Amino acid sequence: MTAPSGVTRLLLVCHASTSATVRAAFPGDEPLDGRGLRRATDLAREFGHGSAACPAELRCVQTAAALGLRIDPDPLLADCDYGRWSGRTLGQVEAAEPEALASWLGDPAAAPHGGESITVLLGRVAGWLAGRAPGRLVAITHPSIIRAAVVHALGAPAAAFWRIDVAPLARVALTGRGGRWQLSYTP
Question: Superkingdom of this entry's organism (predicted)?
Fold first, then answer.
């Protein structure tokens, strides 16, 4: 079944769990953990044998493969660049750099870690959404990308980014037409 003319139907799927998600750490390019791989494999029958837009990070590539999807590489779906915080837990960063962490969590334009600010990430994702052609698309990506897409779709302020929780293998459906997006929830 195809989407009606001029309509984009986008299913964003968060990658499965990794050691970083279990430890509440800023991710690097780590593989799925055993539980994440099993859960993704269990969901494969729901996805069939299509393709998915996917960044190059190992956790997304492994999730797409476990779901039985072919990969269409898309570097714009790469995770937020966490700079020198990559691999460190939130607790470690808070203990070592409390002011920097508070700045990053309180100011979407801040990037004290030397990586990407939330404002820059939101702009990248807004540009990616604007470039979607009508039709159906599945994208395997990261919690940060899904949060940014939801903020954009709702026209919410950048500060809303931190009020959205995206669990491993969470799915968010967006429908777009003429640059406007709707968030859909299907249990």
Answer: Bacteria
